[in-house]
């Protein structure tokens, strides 16, 4: 049986930038455990001769040619943003390390 | 932690420890459009003028892979002697940082398109020894946007009140090339690291997949370094980022070897972390610790189907590979008659193609090299631009050399012509005309200058009459002065000797 700990859920919540209260963590840890258990049932039917898949379509090599297409107008793009300055998206102070 | 104690010298550091290196190089491909959308990749556009729903990560948008980018990736892999995956996928690398509006970067994780290759590099100069650098993998991904940090003292993130984002670069195809651990004799390790990046840059340029100009961020390097005692397993490594010139590669590796040696020999331990290279101070400073590093939660990209290059396609691409740069260099070096050292200088200056093009325009190889590595390099360096952006073309340099060869210019005048071209005064012929740079070599005009010089320095003339040819230089100097440098020195010498020894 899968088992996901409260600490793991808290860690994932942090990575996903979700601010969860302690009671929410308790609640979700239990739910996620049940979901993982349900998904794990797939392993009961997956035989060794069935390769894992990440895609529902039996397609490969879908490409486009290296030809330019029209972009969006900068004004329209920035108008949809919460804040803009000097033709750029304005974001709050970035905490932590420079990438 | 700030290290205030003096670092050991490089020689002291490697007397005890062996370095192991690993290089990660990102190459921005020179495709017309981005990796997953048709936005232009042109450099220098107005901010956010080359964006669309795909590269902005707007809901409902779907990426489609650029065929040329995949071909470039395969060609890079083949040129690096890699195997090409028969089947591979893209993956999402999840992280929250405003340089990626999607909140993930589309990359490749455990299924790179190319893997397990090698690149031979040599240091040139006195030793012709070759070092084989193992290539772990080359994979496809996309570039991030550019941040501008506002309100801080130096444009850095610390102290900034907010940041501004331009997503024109977001989604430009990148190829990340990762080496296997590089274990070479400690004394040459930093030089090998530099030689590897230099050779890789030449290879990328020869393939025509990118201009690979480091000063424009088209080729970026992260250097992993660890130390160990001989015979020990690998030590803890650090990853130095922001190493963005060939010279910095060597300096950053050297610095990190010395810094780690200081920590280890004082009984400390190396912390696994990223470090930032500072070109101005020649030091690295601590960044993110690995134990704090993000958990990227990679998973296969559901919006893209797998890539399965047929063996026929791979062989077609293999047939398009150019002559390897090392073979081309050997061929050109022989044709040009350069020594190993001269050739290394040309390559390190990034002037190989410029010299090649100048020779193709009719100049001698020696003449071409003299200008590109001399006057042009000096001005380019002053302005902080690449040689090809200094404002003079191979055709211009060849024209200057032709004017010297036909006797219209001497070296001194030619230098003024090159200066004029670099200053934007026009073509060499236009500069000659505008500045009135004409070599005085007709015997009438030159004869008067020669006679004046002899008359002004009778004691020097007497020495020459007595057979002291070393004194001729003093008269030529005077003639150059009186003609403002425009005299033909060779003809002037002949006229002096005719008059005094004839
Ligand atoms: Zn786009």
Automatic annotation (TrEMBL), chain A:
GO terms for molecular function: asparaginyl-tRNA synthase (glutamine-hydrolyzing) activity; ATP binding; glutaminyl-tRNA synthase (glutamine-hydrolyzing) activity; transferase activity. Pfam families: GatC. It catalyses: L-glutamyl-tRNA(Gln) + L-glutamine + ATP + H2O = L-glutaminyl-tRNA(Gln) + L-glutamate + ADP + phosphate + H(+); L-aspartyl-tRNA(Asn) + L-glutamine + ATP + H2O = L-asparaginyl-tRNA(Asn) + L-glutamate + ADP + phosphate + 2 H(+). Its EC number is 6.3.5.-. The keyword Nucleotide-binding applies. Keywords: ATP-binding, Ligase, Nucleotide-binding, Protein biosynthesis, Transferase. One of its GO terms (biological process) is translation. The keyword tRNA processing does not apply. InterPro entries: Asp/Glu-ADT_sf_sub_c, GatC. It comes from the Bacteria. Allows the formation of correctly charged Asn-tRNA(Asn) or Gln-tRNA(Gln) through the transamidation of misacylated Asp-tRNA(Asn) or Glu-tRNA(Gln) in organisms which lack either or both of asparaginyl-tRNA or glutaminyl-tRNA synthetases. The reaction takes place in the presence of glutamine and ATP through an activated phospho-Asp-tRNA(Asn) or phospho-Glu-tRNA(Gln). NCBIfam families: gatC. Belongs to the GatC family. Heterotrimer of A, B and C subunits. This is Aspartyl/glutamyl-tRNA(Asn/Gln) amidotransferase subunit C. It comes from Jiangella aurantiaca. The lineage of its organism: Bacteria, Bacillati, Actinomycetota, Actinomycetes, Jiangellales.
UniProtKB/TrEMBL annotation, chain B:
One of its GO terms (biological process) is glutaminyl-tRNAGln biosynthesis via transamidation. SMART domains: GatB_Yqey. It catalyses: L-aspartyl-tRNA(Asn) + L-glutamine + ATP + H2O = L-asparaginyl-tRNA(Asn) + L-glutamate + ADP + phosphate + 2 H(+); L-glutamyl-tRNA(Gln) + L-glutamine + ATP + H2O = L-glutaminyl-tRNA(Gln) + L-glutamate + ADP + phosphate + H(+). It comes from the Bacteria. The keyword Mitochondrion does not apply. Residues 354-500 form the Asn/Gln amidotransferase domain. GO terms for molecular function: asparaginyl-tRNA synthase (glutamine-hydrolyzing) activity; ATP binding; glutaminyl-tRNA synthase (glutamine-hydrolyzing) activity; transferase activity. Pfam families: GatB_N (PF02934), GatB_Yqey (PF02637). InterPro entries: Asn/Gln-tRNA_amidoTrfase_suB/E, Asn/Gln-tRNA_Trfase_suB/E_cat, Asn/Gln_amidotransferase, Asn/Gln_tRNA_amidoTrase-B-like, GatB, GatB_Yqey_C_2, Gln-tRNA_amidoTrfase_suB_CS, Gln_synth/guanido_kin_cat_dom. Keywords: ATP-binding, Ligase, Nucleotide-binding, Protein biosynthesis, Transferase. Its EC number is 6.3.5.-. Coiled coil: none annotated. Belongs to the GatB/GatE family. GatB subfamily. Heterotrimer of A, B and C subunits. Allows the formation of correctly charged Asn-tRNA(Asn) or Gln-tRNA(Gln) through the transamidation of misacylated Asp-tRNA(Asn) or Glu-tRNA(Gln) in organisms which lack either or both of asparaginyl-tRNA or glutaminyl-tRNA synthetases. The reaction takes place in the presence of glutamine and ATP through an activated phospho-Asp-tRNA(Asn) or phospho-Glu-tRNA(Gln). This is Aspartyl/glutamyl-tRNA(Asn/Gln) amidotransferase subunit B.
């Amino acid at each position: 049986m899968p088992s996901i700990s409260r600490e793991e859920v808290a860690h994932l919540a942090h990575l996903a930038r979700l601010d969860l209260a302690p009671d929410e963590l308790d609640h979700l840890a239990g739910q996620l455990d049940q979901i993982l258990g349900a998904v794990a049932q797939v392993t009961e039917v997956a035989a060794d001769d069935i390769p894992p898949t990440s895609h529902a379509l039996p397609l490969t090599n879908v490409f486009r040619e290296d030809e330019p297409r029209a972009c969006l107008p900068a004004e329209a793009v920035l108008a949809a943003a919460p804040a803009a300055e000097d033709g750029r998206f304005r974001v709050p102070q970035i905490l932590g390390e420079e990438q | 932690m700030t290290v205030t104690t003096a670092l050991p010298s490089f020689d002291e550091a490697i007397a005890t420890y062996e370095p192991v290196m690993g290089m990660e190089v990102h190459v921005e491909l020179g495709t017309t459009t981005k990796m997953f959308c048709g936005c232009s990749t042109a450099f220098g556009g107005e901010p956010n003028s080359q964006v669309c729903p795909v590269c902005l990560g707007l809901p409902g948008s779907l990426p489609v892979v650029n065929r040329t980018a995949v071909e470039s990736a395969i060609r890079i892999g083949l040129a690096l002697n890699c195997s090409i995956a028969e089947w591979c996928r893209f993956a999402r690398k999840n992280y929250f940082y405003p340089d990626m509006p999607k909140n993930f970067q589309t990359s490749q994780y455990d299924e790179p398109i190319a893997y397990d290759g090698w690149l031979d590099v040599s240091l040139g100069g006195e030793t012709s020894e070759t070092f084989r650098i193992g290539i772990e993998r080359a994979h496809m991904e996309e570039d991030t946007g550019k941040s501008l940090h506002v309100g801080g003292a130096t444009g850095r993130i610390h102290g900034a009140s907010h940041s501004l984002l331009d997503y024109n670069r977001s989604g430009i195809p990148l190829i990340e090339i990762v080496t296997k651990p590089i274990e070479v004799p400690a004394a040459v390790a930093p030089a090998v690291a530099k030689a590897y990046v230099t050779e890789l840059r030449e290879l990328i340029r020869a393939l025509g997949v990118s201009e690979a100009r480091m000063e424009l961020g088209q080729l970026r390097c992260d250097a992993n370094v660890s130390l160990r005692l001989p015979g020990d397993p690998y030590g803890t490594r650090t990853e130095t980022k922001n190493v963005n010139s060939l010279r910095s590669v060597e300096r950053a590796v050297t610095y990190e070897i010395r810094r780690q040696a200081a920590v280890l020999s004082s009984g400390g331990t190396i912390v696994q972390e990223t470090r930032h290279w500072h070109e101005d101070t020649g030091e690295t400073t601590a960044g993110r610790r690995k134990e704090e590093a993000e958990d990227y939660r990679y998973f296969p990209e559901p919006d893209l189907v797998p890539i399965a290059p047929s063996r026929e396609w791979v062989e077609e691409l293999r047939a398009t590979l150019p002559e390897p740069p090392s073979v081309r260099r050997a061929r050109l070096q022989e044709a040009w008659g350069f020594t190993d050292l001269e050739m290394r200088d040309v390559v390190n200056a990034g002037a190989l193609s410029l010299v090649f093009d100048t020779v193709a325009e009719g100049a001698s190889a020696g003449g071409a090299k003299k200008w590109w590595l001399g006057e042009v390099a000096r001005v380019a360096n002053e302005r902080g631009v690449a040689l090809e952006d200094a404002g003079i073309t191979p055709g211009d340099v060849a024209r200057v050399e032709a004017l010297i060869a036909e006797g219209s210019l001497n070296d001194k005048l030619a230098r003024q012509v090159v200066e004029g071209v670099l200053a934007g005064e026009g073509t060499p012929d236009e500069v000659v005309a505008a500045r009135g740079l004409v070599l005085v070599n007709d015997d009438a005009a030159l004869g008067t200058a020669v006679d004046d010089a002899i008359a002004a320095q009778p004691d020097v003339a007497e020495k020459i009459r007595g057979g002291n040819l070393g004194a001729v230089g003093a008269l030529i100097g005077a003639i150059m002065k009186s003609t403002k440098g425009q005299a033909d020195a060779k003809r002037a010498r002949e006229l002096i000797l005719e008059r005094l020894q004839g």
